[in-house]
């Protein structure tokens, strides 16, 4: 599911542009990670973190006039997509003060609600950088693994601490799109398998034309274009439920789409686009083991733990395996307890069986399945670390029973123990403003080199 995130409002109204402003210097927080070649043999890499362009203050290229306020565009500065790009500039970020983002050593903490001097910010989406102008590109297949530690002990129902990979351009589209003057330095170029249409700028142009303000999110809307690419959800989770989910696309790289033909969360026909919006997921609770993940359970979410994801083999035969490490103990992923769907990892065979038993749409296979996912992983993908709440379905698809009009006893409907009335963004933002997630100790390398 896409991260539909409520964003800052007020004087620092959230928006994004492709020109660069000069009101705030852009200084990327530093964050280290490790590349391993053998068990116990890892080299520290000095990375940086950048916040997505969609969160940034967008204003007239001269002066302070907002190009976007609340969930509406300035009709003088942004008459159409091209004029908006030439009239508006996005500025640097105060990471801690405005967005609640703090990097220290090998860790990154994202706070949910941050009340700044001029704004209240909700959630964030950040990317790992190789240097100040380039995203780090992780090649994850074949036979490679990605490991990180996470503390989500104070992420309740309705929140999603998501760590995942998308097939963005390494420079944020700077070379490909001449109108894009900001590039990866300012967090441009986002895409995912929902072909998101809430992005303010796509391919260096505004997304103003046919913009419709959200009916339940004072800071967001949907434009006439979307931005599609392959997505590997390593980690979507709160303290109650977690899922890992590959999303294939018929084309791997970032591609702009038009209107409802985009498909995904934002379109009238969810399955109309280039990409698979549902994915093939492994959620332990949904697969019948309700005692595996959560506070006081086998993987105890009241404490920090390690998440290991392995990409074994390639092509349609690729297997995506999961391990956890906590208290010095390696914990294999839970086994499926659903009749007719055996296994504890994601394979083509598992996905075939799961989709059949659950009766779900199988667009994952239609869009190339594991073979196309392996292509994207082999080509290199950008690491995204985010925290969000859900204005479309209250995160019930992750941590409750969903769809809500179906009996929770039907296989595949129960995904977590949260109440079906939970997760309403206004409620979560009020009751859980102090929520946060911390990602740390990222490691990447050949199989069985990053943990033990």
How would you sum up this structure, described in words?
- With 452 residues, this protein is mainly β.
- The protein has a single domain (29-51, 124-446), classed as 1,4-Beta-D-Glucan Cellobiohydrolase I, Chain A (Distorted Sandwich).
- The chain has helices at 81-87, 95-99, 348-358, 363-366, 369-379, 396-399, 425-431, and strands at residues 9-10, 19-20, 30-38, 41-51, 58-60, 68-69, 72-73, 88-90, 101-104, 107-111, 113-115, 119-122, 124-131, 134-135, 137-138, 144-151, 159-166, 201-202, 205-206, 212-213, 221-222, 225-228, 231-237, 242-247, 255-258, 293-294, 299-300, 305-312, 319-326, 329-332, 381-389, 436-446.
- The strands form 8 sheets. The protein has a 16-stranded mixed β-sheet that branches. The chain has a 3-stranded antiparallel β-sheet with strand order 1-12-11.
- The chain is globular and about 60 Å long.
- The chain starts with 8 loop residues before the first strand and ends in a 6-residue tail after the last strand.
- Mean pLDDT is 94; it is low at 1-17.
